Amino acid sequence: MTFRAVVIIGDTKQKVGVGIGRAEDVNLAIEKAILNGKKNLISVPITFKYSVPHVIKASFGACKIMLRPASLGSGVIAGGSVRTVLELAGLRNIVAKQFGSNNILNNAKATILALTNLNTKIELGKYQSVTRNNFYEKIMKKYKNVNNIL
């Protein structure tokens, strides 16, 4: 008999990761999951409103996730593991909807995938046109400053 632990790790300042650990003891499974989560940390772009810059959809397995930016003061409107991932990423104003399966692990991984796709879209948008470049420079100053420090 083995135990599986799913752990979500984040610093509420643009870093978040999901880890899985399996062992015969619960404590060992949690330790393995924490190590796995630290290896899989991603950086999340956050606007001045502590939200995402645009709507993003992602799917992992049978789970589909849609993340939408929300106005200031609306809070994190999400459920289950999606809410935990978004709060630990540092997002404070966001609307998330999950479609399909209610599997905790797949919903967390779909959210991580959506946030990763958000990063790649922002990087591509910076190089597409001058107008988009100016837009992302204004909106994503906070994200840019963090990357310059690192």
Report on the architecture of this protein.
The protein has helices spanning 26-39, 80-89, 104-128, 130-139, 141-149, and strands at 3-10, 15-23, 42-43, 56-60, 63-69, 76-77, 94-100. With 150 residues, it is α+β, with helices and mostly antiparallel strands. The chain has 2 domains: 3-42, no CATH class; 43-149, 2-Layer Sandwich (Ribosomal Protein S5, domain 2). α2 (80-89) packs across α3 (104-128) and α3 (104-128) packs across α4. 31% of the residues are buried.
Please render the helix and strand layout as text:
Blueprint: E1 3-10, E2 15-23, H1 26-39, E3 42-43, E4 56-60, E5 63-69, E6 76-77, H2 80-89, E7 94-100, H3 104-128, H4 130-139, H5 141-149
Parallel strand pairs: 6-7
Antiparallel strand pairs: 1-2, 2-3, 4-5, 5-7
Helix pairs in contact: 2-3, 3-4
Task: Give keywords.
150 residues; Ribosomal Protein S5, domain 2; four-stranded mixed beta sheet; three-stranded antiparallel beta sheet; 27% strand; elongated
Rg, please?
16 Å
Low-pLDDT residue spans:
none
Strand content: 25-35%
Main sheet makeup: 4 strands, mixed
CATH class categorisation of the largest domain? Alpha Beta
- Give me the CATH fold name of the largest domain: Ribosomal Protein S5, domain 2
Task: Please report the number of helical segments.
Answer: 5
CATH architecture of the largest domain: 2-Layer Sandwich
Distance between the termini: 43 Å
Mean pLDDT: 88
Structural domain count? 2
Order of helices and strands: EEHEEEEHEHHH
Helical content (DSSP H or I, runs of 4+): 40-55%
What's the count of strands?
A: 7
Helix/strand structural class: alpha+beta
**Spatial ordering of strands, largest sheet:** 4-5-7-6
